[in-house]
Fold this protein.
Amino acid sequence: MRILYCALDQTVPGTTGGSVHVTAVAEGLAALGHEVHVLTTRGHGPFPAGAVRWIPMSPPLGKKQLRWMRLGRVRAIVGALKPDAIIERYYNFGGEGILAADAGTPKTILEVNAPVIDHKGSTKGWIDRLLLLEPMRRWRERICDRADLIVTPSAAILPATTPPRKIIRLEWGADTDRFHPNAAGRVPFERPATTVAVFAGAFRSWHGAIHLVRAIRQLHERGRSDIGAVLIGDGPELPAVREAANGLANVVFTGPLPHADMPAALAAADIGVAPFDVAAHGPLSLAFYWSPLKIFEYMATGLPVVAPRVDRIPSLVEHRREGLLYDAATPDGLVTALEQLADPTLRRLLGRAAHERAVREYSWRAHCEALSQAIATLRS
């Protein structure tokens, strides 16, 4: 099939989860023999080499909220390219890919990784209601209605009127050829302790990196300086997390890393921590709709996962099989889980099972094969 993939608000190459997702899906579909063309913002450096045909296209003035204004240009590309399918990565102010398929051909697939509906107390929803006709809600629902297929980790973030027959639930994944227990390469840190817990991702309040640092401080106060942490990434909460780590010699910050360096960085750690704080992010009141890239990459690398026991997480990581899940309402839940995983025998047991499940269920190959089959079924 010839596939056009619209992801104008993402940057490739890049270090964010969205950038990794777009790159992995495009390359995974191309590896299955499809001709893949991708519209996306060019990041720093050249586009990835390979079979994917990258087409640089940014939102007007670099503003994601104006992404929909590229409809005319996308429609011209669709007319020239004549793709069999158009995939659009959903964004509140997108729609240019779905609406470019005016005649119902090619087939349209909407990737939804963030809520289409407004959560209770949403500022955006409040503004929309002030406009009386709720134009933003109507626009989003129009995009969902026009899509032939919607791919999402959670149907709870879609309009209630979405027919179940057009929803396919798929998790994100990990490149299990690159992320594995023996991944080699440059490691951008010295191990700060005998047992190293790693956090990788965006430093936003709901990602909960500060909870890992606070847990390390509690362990230090208990005399457990043998358990340390490496925190990889950047974001608005980084200054607060650094402040919380003041005086802790066994906590290291690397800053953001190219995704190519991540397999070796994770393989140099012992525990993968995803301390999500769902109460810190209003949209998560709808559901834990994320398909957490960090968890799948931890698992693929053979790291036991430590995460809170909330919503969908127990379905992704089985407690005491692929990791340890804790009650976020318990003050020392994360501390206790880290302390238990200071046992190397337990780490090896859980890490081996985590790796096996990642290869079996959470690889980008598995994701792209399921997506490819869904599109083929749709076309037939």
Q: What stands out?
A: The chain has 13 helices and 13 strands.
